[in-house]
Amino acid sequence: MTARTADRAARVDRAMAGMSEAGVRLVALSWVDNAGIGRVKAVPLGRLPRLAVHGVGMSPVFDTFLVDDSTARTGGFGGPVGDLLLLPDPDRLTVLAAQPGWAWAPADRYGQDGEPYPGCHRSFVHRMVGAAAGLGLSLRMGFETEWSVGPGGPGDGPAYGLARLADSGAYLLDVVDALTAQGVDVLQIHPEYEPGQFEVSTAAEDPLGAADTAVLVRHTVRTVSHAHGLRASFAPLPEPTGIGNGGHVHLSLWRGEQNLMHGGTGPRGMTPEGEAFLAGVLRSLPALTAVGCPSPASYLRLAPSTWAGVYRCWGWENREAALRFVTGPVGEAAERANAEVKCFDQAANPYLVAGSVIAAGLAGYEDALRLPAEFTDDPARADPGELQRRGIVRLPAALADAVRHLKGSVVLRKAMGDHLFDALLAVREAEDGLFAGRSRAETVEATRRRY
Ligand code: GLU
Ligand code: MG
To answer: Does ligand 1 have an atom closer than 6 angstroms to the CB of 243?
Structure first.
């Protein structure tokens, strides 16, 4: 046994404690693919100690899966031959509170030679966190989860309406109880803008933990919804009209105990280091759009004046800026100052989002970039001449546009590595082709039950 497998064996032993007492009999091992779909293999609990070290087989073909389960036709990836290993992360083994008898763990993908697979999304985040650590930096991140159970169900009523709790209160309580029992730190939950639309946000954590939590939160909401006779959709636009579901991500950059988004001489109290990181994110936003808004359906959601942040600018508490800066309330600002990327949605693979945002930010950090002046209004209502003078543009308005930016991104190619980057590109281009010529209603229909 190598030191690494011995370490995994010890970690899984610790994680197994209490599992059978909790009634767990099956463990779901999940990963998220380049189409943003969570996929799973399940194993009996008793096999976990062995599998956590030696892995469960799964085909590499999933690298080419599209949202409709067809595959991108590309010579380089997928095909029927070959096998990878899923290795569950023992440190994240969680009893599923709303799915009795089950536990869940996110899995890393390895080759049969025991080496990390270059297409593994969790390893990508791990590498980016390591790159930050090499500069003495760390990150805190948190994803917001919005979902819709459709009009006519519970939570029908005015936007953010108190009245909507009358028939959705018990449902939301079950969501929060399940998340809390699973160790997820819930910050808030509320009825969103549309009838039957809700949002839950969770506390910031390390980037890999935040991406894992996003997967767990979504699965938990889905499961609790099912128990209430509801079907939750996390699609960018679950109904052809109205406001969509965002997948905003909050982030802050730290050096040791110091939040670099606070207490500095830069704009809105950022430190120069924090500013450079955010400027790097802003610089790469058009390419990041292909990662964070990866579906043709994403571009149906990205409308101005809907708090989806479709303009490439930043601003203090500006919900129409793609990058909203949050200084945090007096007394807690040193802890809570952060930036929110608002344009992303939940068709995105959260691991790709976390890793790519870090890569873009670190590139800005290394180039010591400065932010442009902040924008403090809704750009859609501003004088177009002023936007032009200030270089404030719309983010890509179609997937093909975003993919073009992604293709040209040296920063993201280098960070992901050729294998992951090319597989992602292949899937994005194939999905663009798949939806070509479809109407808005057809695109919504084809995606609302997939995410
Ligand atoms: N639902 C909006 C979106 O698609 C976001 C609303 C909010 O800011 O919470 O991003
Ligand atoms: Mg919201």
So the answer is: yes
Output the residue whose Cα is nearest ligand 1's atom 6: 307
Residue among 144, 145, 193 whose CB has most ligand 1 atoms within 8 A, to mutate: 193
- Of the ligands numbered here, which is closest to the C-alpha atom of 341? 1
pLDDT, average across residues 330-343: 96
Tens-place pLDDT, residues 282-336: 999 999 999 999 999 999 999 999 999 999 999 999 999 999 999 999 999 999 9
Q: Which ligand is nearest to the CA of 201?
A: 2
Closest listed residue to residue 109, CA positions, set 383, 349, 373: 349
Residue with the two structure tokens 């610790």: 14
Please give the biggest Cα pair distance in the chain: 66
Res 234: pLDDT:
98
Pocket test for ligand 1, best of 144, 187, 192 (most atoms within 8 A of CB): 192
**Residues flanking ion ligand 2, Cβ below 5 Å:** 199
Q: Which domains does the chain have, with CATH numbers?
A: 3-114 (3.10.20.70), 126-447 (3.30.590.10)
* CA-nearest residue, atom 8 of ligand 1: 307
Give exposure, 32-57, as e/b (b: 16+ Cβ within 10 Å).
bbbbbbbeebebebeebbebbbebbe
Angle made by CA atoms 150, 216, 430, in degrees to the nearest 5: 70
Atom of ligand 1 lying closest to residue 236 CA: 4
319 in contact with ligand 1, CB cutoff 6 A: yes
Across residues 436-440, what is the average pLDDT? 97
Q: How far is the CA of 272 from the centre of ligand 2 (A)?
A: 30
pLDDT tens, position by position, 363-391:
999 999 999 999 999 999 999 999 999 99
Minimum CA distance residue for ligand 1 atom 7: 307
Which ligand 1 atom lies nearest to the CA of residue 343?
A: 10
Q: For residue 332, report the distance from its CA to the centre of ligand 2, in Å.
A: 22
